[in-house]
């Protein structure tokens, strides 16, 4: 079966003064339709670069990314992108922000309103639909961004540290909302995070990357029931997978990354 996303021999080299810097040194990865894949790894291992190439925002130096067997050659509404910054229009209400992409696609007003309402309800913003972003908390803004990305019905959702700027409790809450949304409206999701617990809680598969050059270090299946909750986080099975991911991230050979980089990137999450 054709994978939803096929990454083949992907290389990305950036010019660095007179030198070159290899951000991705040859990445191969297939992602099946409906999978939830998280990417973790030390700072600078190329997570965002990989994500940006899949989104069509960057071009590879060599290799290719195919979505449904077709080469990616630029951004597309089929691939919804959510970054850490909220990127909402400050002058539009939650509802109008969510409707925006539908308007651009020429969807009639009545259908726009109905679809926007469905996703606003799904992310739990029913009572805030007519507020402007400045009246919302960070978590609510990010839920608006999620509803907006979902409303245009993309095949893929590409999320780069979407909860990185939020406090721990809001973060856990949004992880649960995202999982519920994913279970009700199944899409293929590629999600970048620094947080090992988040990576395991959300994913069907965790891809651990290493730096210099950026590459896949280990792929770990998350063999846990699809319905996840607080009990999941406290279970021994969850702890075992988390430990495995943790080890893969930390025990990357010295030289794959500098000590300082690794400390900076992951120190905040050290137990
Ligand atoms: N436009 C660019 N020009 C030069 N170097 C770049 C460019 N973009 C990224 N890099 C370098 O490529 C490497 C990979 O960057 P990338 O942002 O993909 O890493 P990351 O794993 O997402 O890091 P972080 O977790 O810190 O966000 C880094 O060393 C970065 O400095």
From TrEMBL:
Residues annotated as domain ABC transporter: 5-236
Originating species: Sinomonas terrae
Protein name: ABC transporter ATP-binding protein
Pfam families listed in its UniProt record: ABC_tran
Keyword Lipoprotein recorded: no
Keywords in alphabetical order: ATP-binding, Nucleotide-binding, Transport
InterPro entries recorded: AAA+_ATPase (IPR003593), ABC_transporter-like_ATP-bd (IPR003439), ABC_transporter_ATP-bind (IPR050166), P-loop_NTPase (IPR027417)
Molecular function per GO: ATP binding
